[in-house]
Specification:
- The complex is a heterodimer of chains A (155) and B (652).
- Chain A is built from 6 helices and no strands.
- Chain A has 155 residues and is mainly α.
- Chain A has 2 domains: 98 residues, Helicase, Ruva Protein, domain 3 (Orthogonal Bundle); 46 residues, no CATH class.
- In chain B, strands 2, 3, 4, 5, 6 and 7 form a 6-stranded antiparallel sheet that branches.
- In chain B, a hairpin with a 2-residue loop joins strand 2 and strand 3.
- In chain B, helix 10 runs antiparallel to helix 14, helix 18 packs antiparallel against helix 20 and helix 20 runs antiparallel to helix 21.
- The radius of gyration of chain B is 27 Å and the shape is globular.
- Classes of the chains: A mainly alpha (155), B alpha+beta (652).
- At the A-B interface, helix 1 and helix 5 of A face helix 14, helix 15, strand 1, strand 7 and strand 9 of B.
Chain lengths: 155, 652
C-alpha cells in the first residue's frame, strides 16, 4: 500500500508547482522585464484571480510563451496584449477580454472606471448639503434634560 | 450519539432564540419588565446549546467519525490534530456553526457587560441579536446542516485542502468571525436605538467598545490572512484583491469609519444619524462577506446555480436585515437632531473627511468586486477586475487619508486652528520629506511608489509622536499620565504608517530571481549568494516532501540556512510549495524550491523583500492601539455612570 502510494506520488510529482519557469524566460533582460510586467495584467483563464505569472495551470504557461513570442517578434506592449485578447482573424481566436486583469476603459466599462471619482463627489456633495441643512445648534437644554439637571442638582 | 445530541441542541437553540427574539421585544413595547428580563437567561441558554452543538461537531472531527458527511469530505485519520480541530470551520457548514457560536458568545457578553444599560435598550439589543441568530439557525438547519450522516460510512476521509492545513489559516476564520459578529453588536444597538427613537452621547459610548473590539479582531483576522498568503502561496504576495479578501476588507473599512464617527457622536452629539447608518452598513457588509466567501457567489457563478436553495436563502436573509434596517432608518433618521455644530476647520470636519474617504473607498471596492458579475448578468460579457484596477482606484484614497490624518488628530473640536497645528507638525513634515527624498536618491529606478510610501509612513509615525508630545505639554513626565485613549490613538495611527512603509517598500523594491541551479551550485540574489546544498525526501503525517537545504551567504559569511519544501499531499492529491523565509527587521529573504529539470538541476525562486515584516507589525500596532483605547478609563466609567440611569428608570 505504501509503495503504491509512493508510486502515485511520483507520477503526480511531475505536476508543475512553480509558476513562471526558468526555461521560459527570455535571454534579453529588457524584453523579459516587459514580459513580466505584462504578465501581471493577464489573468489565467482557468483560475480565479491569479495572473499568468503566478499560476501553475498549463494554459497559463501557453499564455506566457505566446506573450514572449510576440515580444520577441517586435510587438509593442499594447499589440502583444491585443493579440492575446482578440487574436488574428482567420488564424487565432484570442482569449477574450476576460483575461485582462483590468477591463479596457471604454463602453459600459467607463461606469466602472468613473465610479471612484463619481462616488467621491457624491460623498463630498452629501456631506456639504448635510452641513448646509443642519440648523445652527441650540446650546440650551431640552425639557427632559432640564428636568434631569434639576434632579441632579437637588440630589 | 454525541452527534445527534449536538444536532438536537442546535434545534433547541433555535427555539430559545425565537423566545429571546419575541418576548423581550414585546416586553419593551408594552413595558412589561418581566418579559424584558427573559433576554439574559435566554442568551445564556443559547450559548450553552450552540456551544454543545459546536463541541459535538469538534468531537466528531477529532474522533474521525467519517459517517458524518462533512468530516468525510474534510478530514483524514492522518491529518494532524490541530487541523482536525481547525477542520471544524474549514468548510461551509462548520464555519456557519462557528459564526453562530460566536454570535451567542457576544449575546452573553452583551447580557453580562450590558448590566449598566437601561433595561429597555438591553432587551431590544438582545432581541435584535437573537433575530440575527434565528436567521442563522434556520440557514444552518435547512441548507447547511453540518450534522448530516452518510448512509454508508466510508473507511477514511478525503482530507482537507492542503493550503488550509496551516497554523495561520487555522486561526484566521475565528478572528475574522469575531470581527464580523462583533459588528452585529453595533447593528443591534443601532436598530434598538432606532426603535427607541433615541440616540445620544450615552448610546454612542455604549456602542463604541463593541465596535472597537470587533475592529481589533477584524484587524488581526485580516492580518493573519494576508500573512498566510505571503508565506504559503509561494510567490510572496500579501494581498491579491481577490473577492474573498475584499469581502473582509470592506467591513474593516466601514468599521474603521464607524469607530471614528462614533467618537463624534459621543463627544459632540453630531453625525448621529450617519453613525447609525454606518453601524447598519458595516454589519450588512459583514453578512455579505460571510456569505460571499462561503457560497462562492462571486468567484464562481456556477456553484451558486448548483445549490439554488442556499443562494436564495442568502439573498432572503440579506434582504430582510439590510432592507428592514434601512427602512427603519429611513423612517426614524429624521427624528435625530444634530446638536453640536462645528466650523469648517475642526476635528469634526476632519473626521467627516475620514469617513467619506473610508466609506467611498469601501464602495469603490464593492463596485469593482461586483463588476464582473454585473457585466456577465447584464450584457453577457466575461470580464475580470483585478489588482491593476484596485491599486489605481484605491491608493489615492489612502494617500489622501494619510496626508490629512495627523492634522485631524491634532485639530481642536468645534473650531480648530490649522496654522497652529501646522506649526506643531512642521518637524515630522520636514523629516518625512527628507526620508522620501533620501529614498528617491538611493533607489535605482525612478518610481514614486517607494519614496512616497516611505514619506507618508514617516509622516504618520512622526505625526502620532507629536500628537502625544503636544498633548503632554512637551513634558516627558506627563506622557505616561495621558489617558490610554490618547496612547491608543497614537499607536494605531503610527501602526498605519508602519504598515504603509512595509507595503510601499515591498511593492516597489522587491528583488526577484528565477533560475535553475544544480546541487552544490550557487546563484546570486541581490547582495546575497545562495547555495543549494542538497535535497532530501521527507515524510510528513499526510504528505511527502522534497526538502531542500540552502545556505545564504553575504560577503562569504553564512547568515542563514533555509529549508524550502515542495510537498505533495497524498490523500488530497495536491502539491504545495512551502517557502522558506528568513525574517528580518529590514527585510526578508524568501526562497522557493521548484521542479527538477531535465539536466539534473532544480528550478528555484528567490526574493529579497524589504520591510515586509512592517506590514504585519503595523497591523499589530493598530490592534494594540485599539486595545489601549478599549481599556481607557472613560469607557469603563461610562458603564458605571449608566447604572444610575437605570436606577432612575427603576424608580419611576
Amino acid at each position: 500500500m505504501r509503495r503504491a502510494l509512493a508510486a502515485v506520488a511520483l507520477v503526480l510529482w511531475a505536476l508543475p508547482v512553480l509558476a513562471v519557469q526558468p526555461g521560459e524566460m527570455l535571454a534579453d533582460p529588457a524584453l523579459e522585464a516587459r514580459a513580466r510586467a505584462l504578465s501581471q495584467m493577464l489573468r489565467c483563464p482557468v483560475c480565479q484571480g491569479e495572473n499568468i505569472d503566478d499560476s501553475n495551470a498549463a494554459v497559463a504557461r501557453d499564455l506566457r510563451l505566446m506573450l514572449r513570442e510576440r515580444l520577441v517578434a517586435g510587438d509593442s506592449d499594447q499589440e502583444a496584449l491585443d493579440y492575446l485578447v482578440y487574436g488574428v482573424v482567420g488564424e487565432f481566436a484570442g482569449f477574450g477580454e476576460g483575461i485582462l486583469m483590468q477591463p479596457p476603459a471604454r463602453g459600459l466599462n467607463l461606469i466602472l472606471w468613473g465610479a471612484p471619482p463619481a462616488l467621491l463627489l457624491t460623498g463630498l456633495g452629501f456631506a456639504i448639503t448635510a452641513r448646509r441643512r443642519a440648523r445652527p445648534a441650540k446650546d440650551e437644554l431640552n425639557a427632559e434634560e432640564q428636568a434631569r439637571l434639576e434632579e441632579i442638582l437637588r440630589s | 450519539m454525541i452527534t445527534e445530541f449536538g444536532h438536537f441542541a442546535l434545534i433547541l437553540g433555535l427555539g430559545v432564540a425565537l423566545v429571546q427574539m419575541i418576548l423581550p421585544a414585546v416586553g419593551a413595547w408594552r413595558g412589561w419588565r418581566s418579559w424584558m428580563r427573559v433576554a439574559e437567561p435566554a442568551a445564556l441558554a443559547q450559548l450553552l446549546l450552540v456551544g454543545a452543538a459546536f463541541l459535538a461537531l469538534t468531537v466528531a472531527f477529532v474522533a474521525d467519525d467519517f459517517s458524518l458527511r462533512i468530516v468525510f469530505a474534510n478530514s483524514h485519520t492522518t491529518k494532524p490534530l490541530l487541523y482536525k480541530i481547525a477542520g471544524v470551520w474549514g468548510n461551509h457548514e462548520g464555519s456557519m456553526l462557528l459564526w453562530l457560536t460566536i454570535l451567542t458568545l457576544f449575546g452573553v457578553a452583551a447580557a453580562v457587560f450590558g448590566g449598566g444599560l437601561p433595561l429597555r435598550l438591553r432587551a431590544l439589543v438582545l432581541s435584535v441579536q437573537a433575530s440575527i441568530g434565528v436567521a442563522f439557525y434556520l440557514f444552518i438547519l435547512f441548507t447547511s446542516n453540518p450534522f448530516l450522516r452518510l448512509a454508508e460510512p466510508p473507511l477514511n476521509g478525503q482530507d482537507m485542502n492542503p493550503l488550509l492545513q496551516d497554523p495561520g489559516l487555522a486561526f484566521h476564520p475565528p478572528f475574522l468571525y469575531l470581527g464580523y459578529v462583533g459588528l452585529s453588536m453595533a447593528f443591534s444597538f443601532a436598530v434598538a436605538a432606532l426603535l427607541e427613537g433615541r440616540v445620544d452621547a450615552a448610546w454612542a459610548r455604549w456602542v463604541r467598545p463593541w465596535t472597537l473590539a470587533a475592529w481589533i479582531f477584524l484587524t488581526i483576522g485580516i492580518a493573519l490572512g494576508s500573512w498566510w498568503a505571503y508565506y504559503e502561496l509561494g510567490w510572496g504576495g500579501f494581498w491579491f484583491w481577490d473577492p474573498v479578501e475584499n469581502a473582509s476588507f470592506m467591513p474593516w473599512l466601514l468599521a474603521t469609519a464607524l469607530l471614528h464617527s462614533a467618537i463624534v457622536a459621543e463627544k459632540r452629539e453630531a453625525l448621529k444619524s450617519w453613525t447609525i447608518l454606518l453601524a447598519i452598513l458595516a454589519f450588512s457588509f459583514s453578512l455579505i462577506g460571510t456569505f460571499l466567501v462561503r457560497s462562492d457567489l462571486i468567484t464562481s457563478v456556477h456553484s451558486f446555480a448548483s445549490d439554488p436553495t442556499r443562494g436564495a436563502a442568502i439573498l432572503v436573509i440579506l434582504a430582510i436585515f439590510l432592507g428592514g434596517s434601512l427602512t427603519l432608518y429611513a423612517a426614524r433618521a429624521g427624528t435625530m437632531e444634530a446638536r453640536g455644530a462645528f466650523a469648517v476647520v475642526s476635528r469634526e470636519s476632519a473626521l467627516v473627511l475620514n469617513n467619506i474617504l473610508l466609506a467611498v473607498s469601501a464602495a469603490v471596492i464593492l463596485v469593482g468586486t461586483l463588476w464582473p458579475a454585473i457585466a456577465s448578468m447584464v450584457w453577457g460579457r466575461d470580464l475580470s477586475v483585478g489588482p491593476p484596477f484596485f491599486n489605481k482606484a484605491f491608493t489615492p484614497f489612502m494617500v489622501t487619508l494619510a496626508l490629512i490624518l495627523p492634522f485631524g488628530a491634532m485639530l481642536a473640536w468645534k473650531r480648530g486652528n490649522l496654522a497652529r497645528v501646522a506649526r506643531a507638525l512642521i518637524v515630522p513634515a520636514i523629516f518625512a520629506l527628507a526620508v522620501g527624498g533620501l529614498a528617491f536618491a538611493l533607489q535605482t529606478g525612478r518610481g514614486a511608489l517607494g519614496p512616497v510610501g516611505m514619506a507618508l509612513g514617516v509622516w504618520l509615525v512622526g505625526g502620532a509622536k507629536y500628537d502625544l508630545w503636544t498633548r503632554a505639554g512637551h513634558q516627558p513626565a506627563r506622557l505616561f499620565r495621558l489617558p490610554r485613549a490618547d496612547w491608543g490613538r497614537a499607536i494605531a495611527h503610527g501602526g498605519l504608517g508602519v504598515s504603509i512603509i512595509g507595503i510601499a517598500c515591498l511593492t516597489a523594491w522587491t528583488k526577484e530571481i528565477v533560475t535553475t541551479v544544480p546541487l552544490g551550485g550557487t546563484f546570486d540574489l541581490g547582495q546575497y549568494q545562495v547555495e543549494l546544498v542538497g535535497i532530501a525526501r521527507e515524510r510528513g503525517p499526510n504528505y511527502v516532501a522534497d526538502r531542500a537545504e540552502m545556505t545564504v551567504r553575504k560577503d562569504g559569511r553564512t547568515i542563514a540556512t533555509l529549508w524550502p519544501e515542495k510537498r505533495f499531499y497524498t490523500i488530497a492529491g495536491m502539491p504545495t510549495t512551502e517557502a522558506a523565509i528568513r525574517t528580518g527587521a529590514l527585510g526578508d529573504i524568501y526562497l522557493v524550491i521548484g521542479d527538477a529539470q531535465p539536466d539534473e538541476s532544480y528550478a528555484v525562486r528567490g526574493y529579497v523583500k524589504p520591510f515586509t515584516l512592517w506590514i504585519w507589525l503595523g497591523a499589530g500596532m493598530m490592534a494594540l492601539g485599539g486595545a489601549f483605547s478599549l481599556s481607557d478609563r472613560r469607557l469603563r466609567v461610562a458603564a458605571g455612570a449608566a447604572r444610575t440611569a437605570d436606577a432612575k428608570v427603576a424608580a419611576e
